[in-house]
Batch of 3 targets.
Target 1
Amino acid sequence: MIEFLVMALFLAQPASSQAAAPAASGAPVVAQATPASKSGAPGAPTAPAAKPAAPDAGAPAAPPPAPGTSLAPTGLRNPVDLSADHVTGDRNQAVLTGNVVVKHQTMDIRCEKMTGYYNATRQVTRVVCAGNVRAVDGDRQARGERADYDVPSGVLVVTGSPEARQGNTYLTGTKVRLVLGSERLEVENARILVDSPSTTAVPGTRKKAPAPKPAGTTP
């Protein structure tokens, strides 16, 4: 009778997550109690309460730079150099005022006020200039009252009574378009003034025809 009760108690317990080794023949069977799945059951052991997850402390703070070490980034592959008398900004854009200079590879842009726009990785993607805009790229020059420069494509569009010059060719229109590092120059509604080869002719002068000879005269 006692052996039957022991066997009944063993079969009534939940199965363990790990398979037990088979009992040797004739060896007593020992039952191990497992915690109850529901808290508050009489006589059932309770599991310790789980500790709340620690709050994310975020990325570790950067160590302070060594004395005399510059904070300027190194290894930039395609830098855009911006300078001005005054700069304000946040993570999305920066506003530069007073003697603004923008340099990107061979492109040099100057104006009175500029707004630069950043992407998520803090790279300058667009530059908008206003007020006495002057741009130079190689032998091409452009000026106007407003300019929009797309940094990834290197396209500069100048508006506001724009004018452009390439060598001895002078152009005016409603919109001037330059591409970084290219010799191409596009002007909408253009008027062109070009130089011509020098000539020995004097303006306003004309070779006179010989006067007719009187009748009856011999050569």
Target 2
Amino acid sequence: MVDTAGKAVALSLGPGQRADIAKAAPLLDEAAPKAFIADKPYDAESLIEKLRKRQIAPVIPSRKKRLEMWMTTIKAGIITETTRSELETLEARKRQQTEVLS
């Protein structure tokens, strides 16, 4: 994990065949970032929830599959309270990403 200047603030090494996301949550315990910028493989609900609980802005693009699922749900007219809440969360994340990057 690096800061805005690219300086390492936390480091963890693991086996090459293990997904990097497995080390993300423990690394967060070693740092106090305002935002967490990562690529699509880090778009996991468990990690995003941990970020929210610690009031860290997730700046992670949504995976195509997640977006396609929402679009299918909308087109089918299957909007439940849970779906509506999750859509609002996705929209809020997109706004946060825009704010953090500007």
Target 3
Amino acid sequence: MKSRLSLLIEKTYIYRWLFLLMIPIYFYANQFFDNRDLSFGINLIILTFSALSFRKLSIQAISSGFIALLGEPNFSHMNLHMFFFHWFTSFVTAAFIVTLLEKYFNEKKSTIDLINSLAKSLDSRDEYTAFHSQNVADYSKKIALEMKLPRRVCENIYYGGLLHDIGKIGIPEAVLNKPSALTDQEYDQIKQHPVIGFNLVKHIHRFKQSGILNMIQYHHERFDGTGYPHGLKGNAIPLEARIMAVADAFDAMTSRRNYRTQADWTSVLDELQQHKSTQFDPYVVDAFFNVLERDSKISSLQSKRRTIYNLNSTYSLN
């Protein structure tokens, strides 16, 4: 999963062509136009394209010298002091841009690595949850795209889907992997997982910024206000959590557990339709129905799961 910005920045071949295109423009602008603002603007653009094209400082040192040389208005009477000054300032500018790019990619990678580590921690305790979280992430992203949400929001919703049940790390394995139906007391324990998950990752600033904390904490809230853990109602529930509630319920109903078989397709759709405006946001359900009508992969999911779940012995309920 990559944002549009990440994909754009990674297309270095585009910036190399733009860098080459800007070289003659920069040269002729310095030779025939006595406009410092224009020259400075073009210089900044070509340095940016250079930094986006070549991410190594050693290459930037060479390209900066070349750019400084092109900026000289008169080669025959070149002022070496000014040339080296322009070279130095060009290199510092390019190096600063490269450093910002590296910081952006490192932070992005750190966040993704953290999410994957947390997801694997949950996977190690409950194999079902790994399949469930991946499915919820996929469905939630499809719903978000159907609702025309920004690509970055869709990306965050995908990551939130992977982590929405992370609080189950704090649930005893005897309850989490119980092969029969849960007692009321055990179900109350399970209902604590949104709060446990929130408290586990609430100090990660990026999760708060991206809305992942909202998805972890509120994905079991109901549209009519009878959900848990806080009993939020309607639009007071963050949109990401409302999307995840539909995806979560759909995957739970279409999944097989040791103590019950998976529901048939018609029953699942009827259940979603019946609980519009009570358990689920009706607009989210309608968007998901549109996805289901169009996506043949989801439509064939039941038959694929029979094989998958027969290979695994224990799954949890919520």
